[in-house]
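Dear U.,

Please find below the material for section 3 of the report. The protein was modelled together with zinc ion; I have listed the sequence and SMILES used, followed by the predicted complex structure.
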Amino acid sequence: MSNCPKCSSEALVETPALGNIPLDVCPGCSGIWFDKGELEALLKQSQGWDSADFSLINSMPEGLICPRCKNKMSRGGLVNPLLVVDKCEACGGLWLDPHELELVKKLLGLSGGPSEVKVDRPAPVPEAPPVRDVKTVLIKVVSGVCAILGLIGVSAELYLYFSPAASVAHAPSVGLSVASVMFFIGGVFALNWED
Ligand SMILES: [Zn+2]
Ligand SMILES: [Zn+2]
């Protein structure tokens, strides 16, 4: 996959124009990459135009980096010296900023047909679920243990409370009951804590 020569972080998206010309379009700046012959093919298919001379006028080796072959592209006039575009002399590819396709057609005296190629940014790749660090796992484990201890404490105190005094060795303790309940609630609360 090639990146946009203008906004280099965007990957070009292959977008069929007129059904069968796989143009590469930038979802960020809407620039269009034409591989060698694709612009000619597009104009020929859409408007029957067939006299291609897309060699650059006053070509200067100071363009963008070619997204295909990574050579430095040249800047020069396309059809007209005033329409300055980037073209790769190495692979013959051509980069048009948005609206430059329309200008090319105007200069050629063409009207109708596609003047821009719409592209949708591909759906972002869903982020991987965050990896829980050791600290978080440790807190969860401790919380779980606290909740279980609290539950055991509450059960024991309830058991003592409801048993006949003669059959148990200890009297139920209010302090221990409260502590157990606090442990249980605190543990469950911490267990469900999302940071
Ligand atoms: Zn771009
Ligand atoms: Zn190239």
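For the text of the report, you could mention the following: The radius of gyration is 35 Å.

Regards,
Y.
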